[in-house]
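Collaborator request, handled under Task 6.
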Amino acid sequence: MTQVRISLSISLMIAMLSLTSCGSGHSGEQYIFISTNIKVRYWQTAAAGFSQSANQLKVGYQFTGPDTYDPAAERDALDHATQSKPAGILISVADANLIKDSINRAIAAGIPVVTADSDAPASKRLFFIGTNNYQAGLAGGKRLAQELKGRGNVVVFTMPAQPNLNERLHGYRDALESSAQIKIVHIVDIKGDPRVAFDATNGFLANDKKEHIDAFVCLEALSGNEVATVLDNNNIKGRTVIAMDTDPATLEWIKKGTIVATIAQKPFTMAFVGLKMLDMLHHQNLATLDSDWANDGFSPMPAFVDTGSQILDKSNVDSFSSATNSLTRK
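Structure tokens returned to the collaborator:
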């Protein structure tokens, strides 16, 4: 029922935004979407949503950002985008502290900035659109407890600089509170480099007699394939791997049974709805963007738009892959 309500809410929002934009001129408008890594399939799916939304609105658009995980390069991309004075910017934040000032400069320049997928809550961004990351972690933690049958040592791969990943970890921890014999024994910062996950997994297996690891949890999209590859290379069975997002390799490992499940977000929806809302804000001609919208009872925008998530496993991975391939024409 919760997913149904979320879907209905998003559908109604899109309808209202479309009505708001009807009759508005779009001549020369340009919107920019900045991702953390434009080469990742996840962000290419988001780009498809941004493109489709832009085509419906008949506005210009650009999809940009670094082609590797590089927070400093993403900040530079945002600064460059601000100089071009677009009608709005949608950005997924790699490092909230590093990019805060750049977001604030864009807002000061009168450019609406909305964060997607990963937030910068201490900045003056207008609002966040994406997954309720705590709930995603909670769902993952419940599945983990079910797979481990209440007992086991767990390794978590993450990037602590990203608030969204910390929220997912919070959800996992809360889900495991009632399973006292499941322990998170190591948290590994992969620093945006999948090789760290590969090497760390090899290290844990080499030390298996001293500390047996029963499960590997990946809070980001990069490490799931690495963990599964190491387990497969060593012909190791019986370990639980829960991944994040829908990288093609991750989906293949689910089909093979090496990864038990992954938590799928909705990057297409984030970008599609994000552009609609940026366009609405642009046409409202607000007197100022630098306001305490979160505490304004008559704010013209929400504080958070939850686009939902779902768990993919062997029961539904094939249908998801088919739909994704159709969307991205792969």
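The cover message to the collaborator said: "The longest strand covers residues 181-189. The CA atoms of residues 202 and 230 lie 7 Å apart. Please let us know whether this matches your experimental observations."
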